[in-house]
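Write out the 3D structure for:
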Amino acid sequence: MAWEKLRSAKPLFVMAGPNVLQGRDHALRVASKIAEIRERKGLFMIFKANRTSWGSYRGPGMRAGLEVLKEVKSTYDLPIVTDIHETQQADEVASVADVIQIPGVFLALPDKT
């Protein structure tokens, strides 16, 4: 579903959001602004939250973070993009996220499983 919307988005789609979830209230404020831009500009907007380096702050933890992302998705009808750091996280994250990203920094590391 999200893939078809991405492919047909005109003139483009935009992924926006914090690099890392800093908390529920912050995420909902950011999502509100993204939804506002979507309505005002008519763009296909995606809420993105993921960290960009191995040593950076990881957010509230996977389960708490997924609860926040689930609320963002349902409250503002925004598709979700986030990343995973270990292969065993894929199924649980996929239950909320529309797109799962695997950061390049993690591709160079040995699998911990």
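The first helix runs from residue 2 to 8.
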